[in-house]
Design brief:
153 residues, mainly alpha, Arc Repressor Mutant, subunit A, two-stranded antiparallel ribbon, 6 helices, 60% helix
Length: 153
């Protein structure tokens, strides 16, 4: 292997995506904390998916949130401890657990929605509608480069 091959990281998309995701993660968590929302970004995503379709089973939820089953189980255990969700055995297949929002989970999601809307506005500040569409188009191309066209996220 030739170790003299130069890689221009500053002009490569990958590092810029990585930096941007880290910045977004930091500001999302900081903003949720500033609004006294006992919620992580990952928990917010689960609340959103269950708000869209309550009663998803854990396999469906893992797929929709791009998490492996064990990390989703850990996340759901934490959310159950906060009384955001409850898991119930499926009525037809006892091996399947369905996940439901609790009253507290629904209320927390409702409180968090305007905060997330504010974050989205901050993210898109100074970006035109055309630029936004170009960014989305480019990100979809990157996803398809890895054989992934994940439309369900």
């Amino acid at each position: 292997m030739n170790s003299n091959i130069a890689i221009d990281f500053e002009n490569s998309i990958g590092p810029w995506l990585g930096k941007t995701v880290k910045i977004l993660d930091y500001f999302v968590q900081e903003t949720l904390n500033n609004y006294n929302l006992d919620l992580t970004k990952e928990q917010m995503i689960v609340l959103k998916k269950l708000s869209d379709k309550d009663g998803l089973n854990q396999n469906e939820l893992a797929f929709l949130t791009l998490r492996d089953k064990s990390s989703l189980t850990r996340l759901l255990t934490k959310m159950e401890a906060k009384n955001y969700i409850t898991r119930r055995q499926d009525t037809t297949d006892k091996r399947i657990k369905n996940v439901f929002l609790t009253k507290t989970g629904k209320e927390t999601f409702i409180k968090a929605k305007p905060v997330i809307k504010q974050l989205i506005q901050r993210i898109e500040q100074g970006i035109s509608a055309t630029e936004k569409q170009d960014i989305i188009k480019t990100l979809k191309k990157i996803q398809s480069n890895f054989g992934s066209t994940i439309e369900h996220i």
